[in-house]
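Hello forum,

I keep getting stuck at the same step: I have a sequence, I want structure tokens, and every attempt I make locally crashes halfway through. Rather than fight my setup again tonight, could one of you with a working pipeline run this one for me? It's a single chain of 344 residues.
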Amino acid sequence: MNIILGERTKETVRIYFEKANRQEIKAVLPQKAKTVEEALADFEKTLQPNATSYGRTIYVDGEYVGDIWCYCIDRNEDPNAMLSYCVFEPEYWSKGIASKAVALFLEEIRGRYALKSIGAFTYAGNIASIKVLEKNGFHMEEEFEEDGRASKYFKYDELISRAIAFVQTLFAGNADGHDFDHTMRVYRNAMKLIRSIACDKELVALAALLHDADDYKLFATANNANARRFLQDSGVKEDRIDKIIDAINAVSFSKNKGKRPDTIEGQIVQDADRLDAIGAIGVARTFAYGGKHGRGLEDSIQHFYDKLLLLKDTMNTEAARKLAEERHTFMRSFLDEWKQETKE
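Reply #2:
Ran it on my machine without issues. Output:
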């Protein structure tokens, strides 16, 4: 698919107003303008000098499918703005279009307004929107209620965005359970765990994203060369790089049996990675890895007893222990069913 951004016009404003006022759109993105005349008046304001909002249209293979815009643009000492977007054609949902459009738009507005900070709101139940933001380097800052609905505030971090792009390229083509999707799940796990823990949030985020960048099962690197190269190229100071690498090196189960990471950041990332090894995801990853490496089903089942069933009791944080208990129970149920179906 060819995804590009285009100019907003009076005609696209009319089309957007009609499309975005359908119930399935309003359920996840309430519309400010109540009439098409109000929408057109708001559009005219964006054309004025020093306008506080700016928008683009989203096209897929030449078809207009949505809008993306920033608002509350502040050009003062610390330039900042808010981001919003809408793909109004349901047949184009969950196809990566919004993620690509956000990436293109962020690049444009960072240059246009020299923004240092970009925020975004979404309803807590809008999982698709949350994933779009996370894939583009946003992390959750706050949970609150908006119009009686649980909502979340996300903030953009350019370094995190670059790290996501780096690991996506690094793991391209890998599908054995140690892939980009696994990395993003570990990142999201870590972001959930830090909500109730005082810690260096950026360090946790970077360590979570880079935790498999030098996994010996995937890369023949030494001294965390991939992770170090990315961090050095990104201008991170050496003493901070060492702290990030320390947190990464505390993750591995085989290399850290019985060891508790020295820092809270290392503990969080270790928990986040181990949570992704258990539960339904753990079951799927075990067989994905086993299949790629020629391991039979019975050998894969043995892996549960050798490692996965042990992980529940290795969690460092209270939040992780609660999640691990639920996922452990699921694995036990799966193994009981396996025994039932395979008994002679």
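Residues 20 and 88 are 6 Å apart (CA to CA). If your local run keeps crashing, start a new thread with the error log.
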